[in-house]
Amino acid sequence: MSRIFKKHDWASAVDILEPFVGSVPQDNEFSVDSRYLVGLSLFNLKQFGKALVVFGDMLKLYPNQPVAVQNAQLGLAKTKYEQGATKDAMGMFKEIVFRFPKTDAALESNIWMGQHAMSTNLYDLAVEYYSQALADFPTHEKNYLVHFELGRAYQSWERWIRPWSITARWMNGRTRTLRPRPSSRSPISFRRSWIRPRRSKLTRTSSRPARNS
To answer: What is the pTM (predicted TM-score) of this model?
Structure first.
């Protein structure tokens, strides 16, 4: 079975595990994991309707097994997200993080929420989700991925917010129009030189006293 999953042969996994799940009692020690692997395989095959059924059955059959509940809810959230039910999926991810903090399901939920935030240009939220994942799992094997995504989020956030900070600086009520900032002057000196009245050559007078003829 491990070879099948390493090869990502999800169809073969379903063909092998579904008959097994249907033939063993619910309290069999392999029943829970087998059901989850069937649901995961169906998810990877993009058979989302069938995957929802399997994950939903897990919640009904094993309500008192924390790991089974975590995996089932995570599977439901990921499947809902792929189906386009983004609002429902995000609510499920947040519930997993709240109910099962510092678990693998919470870590994966934060990663999925971070990726969604990146895709919708909510870079500050992405930073928050990825940072939370690293804080909860400082030595997890997936940290290399989280560090990479956190770096992308910071870079995108800085690139997005820089033009707005420049605009806000010029629209602070002290300038009447937006003008490009000169490279050799500070904003304050530029504004002062802009509003200072300039005397014409005709109105200028010499500072030296006039000679008596």
So the answer is: 0.69
Instruction: List pLDDT tens digits, range 199-213.
Output: 544 444 444 555 554
End-to-end CA distance of the chain: 116
Whether residues 52 and 20 fall in one domain:
yes
Both 126 and 71 in a single domain?
Answer: no
Alpha-carbon distance of 178 to 193, in angstroms, equals: 15
CATH code of residue 10: 1.25.40
- Token digits of residue 200: 């014409």
Report how far residue 197's alpha carbon sits from residue 213's, in angstroms, rounded to the nearest whole number.
35
Q: Which long-range contacts (CB under 8 A, 24 or more apart) does 113-119 make?
A: 114/149, 114/153, 115/149, 116/81, 116/86, 116/90, 117/153, 118/149, 118/152, 118/153, 118/156
Q: Average pLDDT for residues 82-87, to the nearest whole number?
A: 95
Q: Which residues contact 199 (CB under 8 A, 6 or more apart)?
A: none
